[in-house]
Amino acid sequence: MKLQSDRILIEIFRNRFQAIADEMAVVILRTGHTVFVKETGDFGAALISESGEVFAAPVSVGVTIMVGLPMAEALRRSRLLGEDEGDVFIANDPHLTRGMATHLSDIFLWKPIFHEGKPVCYAVAFIHSSDIGGRVAGSIAPSNYEIFQEGLRIPPTKFLERGEVNREFLELFLLNVRIPEQNWGDLKALLTGLSTAERRIKDLITRYGAAAVQDRIRGVLDYAEAEARAIITRVPDGTYTFWDYMEGDQFGGGVVRIKLHLRVEGSDLHLDFSETDPQVRFAINMPTYSQRGHWMVAFGVVNWLRTTAPGITYNAGLVRPVHLHIPEGNLLNPDERAAVGVRAATMFRIADTISGALAQALPEEIPAAGSGQGSILLISTPDPATGKTRVSVVQPLAGGSGARPTKDGIDGIDFLMGYLRNIPTEVIEAEMSGVLVLGYALRQDSAGPGRWRGGTGIELELQVFPPYATITNRGMERYIFRPWGRMDGAPGEKGRTSLNPGTEREQDIGKIDVLSLEPGDVLYLATQGGGGYGNPLDRDPDRVREDVINGLVSTAQAGDVYGVIVQNGNVNEAATVRERVILRRQQLPGGAFGFGPERLAYEERWPDTLQTALNEAVAPYPVPLRSFLRDRTVRLAEARAERGEKISVRMLQELIAEVRRSLTQHRGTGGDAAQRGSC
To answer: What is the pLDDT averaged over residues 252-264?
Structure first.
């Protein structure tokens, strides 16, 4: 009888904790000031145990990937500073919080919730600031190569002391950002959310007692862990290997591989990223400190768990079985000087990589890849009325999600970025005077064909009239390699960007880093479609007809790829039967993954063995030299490949030696250090 009573209490507290987290998030949403908070919802909220684990977080408001947030180091530092009733702490530095913050734009506040002079738990919330200072408006540019270019670094600091604002800190903070009034407004929204959570937790303590609340915090964490382990045990034991790519082409870094060995042992998952490429000299590095179940890595696992069991208890118990193995100097565990602003792009690709590994273990359950892009289009213009700079996010640009084993993908949004909302056109034009949205629609023929097609990408076209307007667009990916299909499904279409389309000044500009616009310039962006699932020739012809009528699939693609002949809005059944017979005869054998011709061609030049050998060859060197040796060697090898030579391990060894010799030719200029293996 006691066991049943305990389960009832656990369920009661689980729902109470969840309601508090949800209410905290809604308060922040309704009181936020920047578009990126009040419209897009790029903020987070959670309740934290004394040991630093998330025991409740929102599931439908704000950033809903927070259960693996590692808070232990931040709490250790706030305790060293001294915690009193009414204190609130602030930080955004990834390294002094050991991966709680992962780039400087995420400003975290946390508050101890006391009872009789002792903390019972903590409330934490963060906003993604639209500007935190740094080299460019909006703070984040993909070409940033060190963290010092990305804005103001805030160590764990008392923001409120016994309820009073630390005015010296606030003045320092607001002097270093381009939108001080909006940032201060967002911080006040966070403070309101934390106070709301504090009141609700104290109501629980009054009703049940502090000891009972803390006991149920432990109970709901243990309960979620048990639920997660029950699902994981369904996965056959073994090691499943998969890799995918980031695209560093615009920064001279070539492509960057994320390689995972997923080892399943009973109810534990070991995510070994030790063969992922070294950290790079642009802003896609992700500081995780290899923390178990880290929120920016394990959310790929959490998404799978929640899809498998939608009602699963949502807290850090879900990531207790997830162990990370990431060496220092790795893309996912960089040193403290590395630029990290675009780490979200890496997060999305990690999730794709986890899905690819799980698909080998559970082939009938895992969808195709989504667009794999979560880029944030941001614009800054001078404000002629005030002389200040206006800065705002225009739109979070995702593409379609991957097709599912029994359903099409979702159009215009990737599963991985589903927690961010699009911004209404009217809001953009009101916030940024002189910016006109010319078009915002779904992109035809972008979805990966399949029995179940992928979700379509989107098209955004805007015109900018103010002088000295600057655009940044971080996280643009899948411009080289397509979102992969599954089980004979085709990959989705790649991204595309052009300036002044349809005019004499039209340029295909590819990915954007920092783009200066002339008054009247028009920018066009087209995002990727998700991969398809299953053979396109098995798709229901009526579904193809509906897609043609809705403008998602052209009549040409309907016939050439799906073998469905649509005429005057109807399916020509006889012609469709004939066309499908012809296409099946011509169809090449498919497979579990449809990567597309670009990736197949790349891996013919750079097979797994060569990529692994290159990383092993540069691994003994210090991180800055390692990055240089790798990038320069890849460039030289590609040049030889263009002349018809085949890249080999021996060639790579020779090229590394050649690059090293070039560094040591002039003594007194760093050559001696390079010879000694230091930098």
So the answer is: 90
Helix, strand, coil distribution of the chain in percent, nearest 5: 35, 20, 40
Q: What is the pLDDT of residue 224?
A: 96
* Burial class for 176, CB neighbours closer than 10 Å (0-12, 13-18, 19+): middle
Residues 6+ apart with CB under 8 A from 80: none
Q: How far apart are CA 342 and CA 333, in angstroms?
A: 14
Of 455, 391, 461, 379, give the one whose Cα is nearest residue 417: 455
32-83 pLDDT tens trace: 998 888 888 889 999 999 999 999 999 988 888 899 999 999 999 999 999 9
C-beta of residue 319 within 8 angstroms of C-beta of residue 226 = no
Q: How many CA atoms, within 13 angstroms, populate the side-chain half-sphere of residue 32?
A: 25
Instruction: Summarize pLDDT for 10-19 with one digit per residue, the tens.
Output: 888 999 999 9
Nearest CA to 193 out of 57, 413, 21 is that of: 21
CA 29 distance to own-chain centroid = 21
Element (H, E) at 81: helix 72-81
Give pTM, 2 decimals.
0.92
Strand order in the sheet with 157-161: 54-56, 43-48, 118-128, 106-115, 88-91, 157-161, 164-165
> Phi and psi for 544 in degrees, rounded to 5?
-65, -45
CB-CB contact of 334 with 244 (8 Å): no
pLDDT at 670 over 60: no
Angle between helices 343-361 and 295-308 (to 10 degrees): 40
CA nearest to 48, candidates 108, 133, 102 = 108
Per-residue pLDDT tens digits for 609-633: 999 999 999 999 988 888 889 989 9
- And the tokens for 210? 């502090």
Res 671: pLDDT: 43
**What number of CA atoms fall less than 13 Å from residue 574's CA on the CB side?**
0
Token representation of residue 103: 């780039």
CA 624/CA 632 separation, integer angstroms: 12
The rounded distance, in Å, linking the Cα atoms of 96 and 107 is 13
Using DSSP bridges, classify how beta strands 322-325 and 268-272 pair: parallel, antiparallel or unpaired. Answer: parallel
Write the pLDDT tens digit of every residue in 296-315: 999 899 999 999 999 999 99
